[in-house]
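= Paired protein data =
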Amino acid sequence: MKYLLLLVSIISVSCYADDTIYQYKDKNGATVFTNKPVKNGKKVVLPAITVYAAPMTQSDFKAKGYTNSMAAKNANQDSNIKKNYTQSMNQNLGTNEVGRQQILNEELALEQKALTDSQQALQSGMATKLPSEQNNPEQYQARIKALRDAVTEHQKNIDILSNQLGVKH
């Protein structure tokens, strides 16, 4: 019996000793971790893993047959708190929606102003050629394309905001 106990303890200690981790850099420079000793590998000391039990739930408490009047009172308070929280969230939902609508309306107004500004910039940009663009038509085309892209971007933003607000323009 003593020999069996000694054998089991030796096996358990040897299993624990195999948990050594080595770190090294491979030929590509990547960091590699392994459980086998490697030349130029450094031994990594890792902290022990700790395991905690999950807290007891209300159903666990009831299943184990506990009878505690304080626990029942706390359960009632918890259900009242959850009910009040749900009611306040439902009330705030209406005010949050109003705030959202207001923000979207402000964004829509800003995008419409930005659209008119970018359209005016496009018109004036098409009407005049810069001196550097006289001999370089690609530069002129690139500038006009950027102005057109800005107009298109503002139009897309207005469409998105209008859809979110439910407004047809």
